[in-house]
Design a protein that fits this description.
38% of the residues lie in helices and 17% in strands. The chain is an alpha/beta fold and 872 residues long. The strands form six sheets. Strands 1, 2, 5, 6, 7, 8, 9, 10, 13 and 14 form a ten-stranded mixed β-sheet that branches. The chain starts with 18 loop residues before the first helix and ends in a 5-residue tail after the last helix. It holds the Pfam family DUF3417.
Length: 872
Amino acid sequence: MKAIRRFTVRPVLPEPLRPLSDLARNLRWSWHAGTRDLFRSVDPERWAAAGGDPVRLLGSVPTERLAELAGDRDFLDRLAAVAGDLDTYMTGDRWYQRQSGRLPAAVAYFSPEFGITAALPQYSGGLGILAGDHLKAASDLGAPLIGVGLLYRHGYFRQSLSRDGWQQEHYPVLDPHELPLDQLKEADGAPAQITLALPGDRSLRARVWVAQVGRIPLLLLDSDIEENDLIERGVTDRLYGGGSEHRLLQEMLLGIGGVRAVRTYCRLTGHAAPEVFHTNEGHAGFLGLERMAELRAEGLDFDAALEAVRAGTVFTTHTPVPAGIDRFDRELVARHFGPHAELPGLEVDRILRLGMETYPGGEPNLFNMAVMGLRLAQRANGVSVLHGQVSREMFAGLWPGFDPEEVPITSVTNGVHAPTWVAPEVYRLGARQIGTQRAEEALSVGDSDRWDSVADIPDQDIWELRRSLRELLVLEVRERLRASWRQRGAGTAELGWIDGVLDPDVLTIGFARRVPSYKRLTLMLRDRDRLMDLLLHPDRPVQIVVAGKAHPADDGGKRLIQELVRFADDPRVRHRIVFLPDYGMAMAQKLYPGCDIWLNNPLRPLEACGTSGMKAALNGGLNLSVLDGWWDEWFQPDFGWAIPTADGVGTDADRRDDIEAAALYDLLEQRVTRAFYERGRSGLPDRWIEMVRRTLSLLGPKVLAGRMVREYVERLYTPAAHAHRAMNADAARELAEWKATVRGAWHGVTVDHVETSVASATAELGSTLALRVRVGLGGLRPEDVEVQAVAGRVDEEDRITDAAAVPLKPVGAPGAGGEWVYEGPLSLDRTGPFGYTVRVLPSHRLLASGAELGLVAVPSEDVAEAAGLLMR
């Protein structure tokens, strides 16, 4: 029989055990080994059955066992110590509190998904895991973030395989009362509620759940409540599900509703109001409109409100391809805003202009969430150095007249939260070497460039550690593989072969990620005979563990999974290559440490960052990857291998895959396997162990989320907070009026004449040119602009590279026609072909970049020819 109603019955803990409840509801347990060990000791079997989830564990422990523990002095002492440690962690000064200067009072961090722990399945892939690691690292550093997301009642899908290897999706229903969440309530005990207005006099209401991530509150909005009609209840049903309007409503709830949830949370708890709003990808971009509406209600007009919002907003883009950005039909967006819908105080046509692709090659009828995100943020970044470069090129149309390298999008390379992803065995080895306190500091704060103490760990210890991690992975794989085959319909009698799957002494390669086509899950299958030879080599075999999910609507990705599964089902190789369904955090925490090699072979440069290889590196795994994302900037032959890319414009896709697959096989056959299996005088693989040591000592500090969050604080959050404080109402009006004036007059800004003190085409290193430039300012004042000489080496087409800008100064009074003369020296500080040009940019104390307005005036061709000298 099926129940007609479901309840969650929570245990009543004996008074001495009450701290267990607080420990269970703070997700710090997900990365704090001492807390997990305490819960495991409550009941090891039920702990395993609960999947390592303390809330589920406490709901299943018999009252007799709880009474026994309440009288166990040793357990109560351990409980007091762990609870005291959490209290110190929550209230003591950390890195953030020890910094000088006025850091942001609070930062609101918005993301459509958060991967904190498998016990809170609100993530699909790298974006969510990155967001979760960002919150955890911020907590460890003491940075005052407030996380904002949605609570999806079905989370992302669970994956299994059919008998013929086709991906199957399952959507288990999540009950918030059974998750480590607390409902945000008003002072009278009523649930706090957020409301959005919809067309047709309808409303979208949401309640707010709070997940405590260490020191960081994570607010999750939930529309599945009785006050909503059926359609509105389903807005937060699934992560990345539904059609365009469904996605639009999710993003309106995340952005607009998220700001309202933050305001409510701060009002009810006394938390400091955010000075900075960080949009993690474009999904939450509507948050800027809600903040503008708040300022309109305080008397600012649209343009002044826009400037005030921009000052305190940071936008991070995570996609290197336009197809990865959410874009909505213009009319759909227009219908959801205005007098009879949401944000009636903002003009709909002005809202639309913020997201329209008004640049060459853009789609004029599409509303682009990333474009809006960039227009609403004064500071923006990509997530690796290469991705920053790709992003500047991709969005260069928003800043016409500027070279891509001057587009105001910087980069902060992603990192991973080491306490979450480092295996306990690796941590214990480090703590034995330098002590527990220093090991915790090294993994969380990450403020050193090298971990030199790794050099003192004996080779034998490193090699034994790697083998033990491999052995643990082998056991995990066999258990998961057996469960997968049972789901596929196999009987016990068919599965005896699983006991021989993988070998703890064989070189183990891992490959796990989402399965869009550009990540090339099946590149390893390009030459199946060569792959079989690698898997079955008599002296230097390899074994491969693969995992990954395709989007439910991506049949192409599902076909790739099926192709790989069918290969892995072949009795000749199934003991050497496996596909594990339902890739998630719980699997990943076993997979990364157990792999000797982490394989990554996307189409360059389509991997924005890619953090799975970072997690492997923190456990002593070596990376074998295309030079894309983070590997492009940090690769060294000392600790990994780079797969050559065939990305020339004349290479078609099939040919490119053939070339890069062949390069992958060559590396494995000739270099990787030899380094793993060759033994030195000690009987150990000396070269391999040295690469592991270098991976830990040189890469380890770089790939930390602590390093990443410190960079965000220093390079983006703090400047944004300062800009926010400077942008009071009067300053916002001043800047908006000044921008309007400059835009209106810019057509009259000209560079009329350029002359130099050098008459020949050669000059000596260290000499100085005297530049004299005459410009027309079109009615603007000299303080409204900056006139610059831009100089550097030139290429074969006379384009300036390594450009450096030198400001020139006005001399004298304006001429009869209103023109001004600017002068200044230009140092010739490099040899070889050298060139310069002159340009005029808008200039104002409240601008974050001279490119901010996308306005620039340069010499006409006639002026350039009359003035131009290239030094060769």
